[in-house]
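Attaching the record inline, Q. Sequence:
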Amino acid sequence: MTFNLFTAPRHTLIVATAVASLSLVACGGGGSDGAGSTSDPVTSPSVDPVARAAGPLDPVQAELDNIVLNPLASALSGTPLAGVVDCANELVNYKILDTVDVLAGALLLNGNPSDLTSLSQTLDPERLTERVRAIAFDTAQLLLSLNDAGSSCAALGNSVSDSPDAQQLLNGSNPLAGTPFESIGATIGPAIARLLNATGGATPNRNLPTASLVSAYQQFNDTVQASLAILPTDVQNAPVVSGALLTVGAALNDLEPALASLVTFDAATLQNALTTLLSGIVSNLTTHLLPLGGLEGEVGEPGALSGLNALAVGEFGSTLAELISGGTAVPGTTALSLLNAVLAPLQETVLGPIIDLLSGALGSDPLTPGDTSGSHLSGTPLAPVLDVITGVLGTLLGSTDSDTPCLNLPLPLLGNLLCPSA
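Structure, as predicted:
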């Protein structure tokens, strides 16, 4: 199965020397931006503030948690994939969207939404730095969860101080060595350390210029995108795992131009970037973390499932981005109503039944290995769980020994798609 994700073309940030001297901080300077740093270890990092960033996306985050992410994590409870889903939830649904909430709060207080230069009076640079560092912390835990070694992202928040494996990752060793994820451990681990060092080291730099923060994030994101692109094909196609990694990768990539607009003071770019980011997150979480795109690709019907909410996804991203950027709300339109339009076409016909199936199948004997010969994931903690998931998805596609495989398909929509005469 191939799981291609909804994402926009790569936005490249070029911060010229003159622009790099600009800052949204009222006071000047304070600490190095860490540009070009490659080897400074992060030693005994303290706990950054872990409180959620309140903002207009709060109801969206809670609903995605309740409808998609928590049910999937519960279905995978007791398996190595539970940590992967948990960290994808924390990283995308909370850390990245919390960063947008911080921007939204500043834009709300900004007297002229089309003039981003006045954000210097409303955007707290320390809070923005904390949000970006939170992304880095949970990226470390996501990497470790791929080998069933990550601690709960929700419990640890913005800290790696209680995670020896994360400490090793940030200080140069690779806990993923010998696994199919060795390459991303070797490249993204040091990139996380460089981002943390560039933003203050063990504690956040309270006076970090926004241009320096954006430059450090760009270098981190460049490494993430290059690393994900060279993952083995089996990993890129693995259900849930590929959806988690590539959803995270797309969200990290789409966040960059939003941050870059704070340096170029480009309000139009910010709104467009937020549209892409928000649309991509809800699309990928609802149709790729759960492998709907892979299912429809296998039966040669692209869009049959993921296309059910395509229009609503676009409306969600563009309308919410306009509201965050200072636009006027259509009466009766809220962030939650926009998200409900995205979830409604999938919730009863697709999402619920797939989660129920996975929960039942994995609840029986989730760690009984199947045939993993020839797979890059064989011998890893993920292999037996992926065997079960692949078997469940195979059943959905009608690949069973039964003479009448179409009669018992649990998804009416898939049943009609695959077996129209059933």
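Residues 315 and 338 are 7 Å apart (CA to CA). The chain has one domain: 48-361.

More tomorrow.
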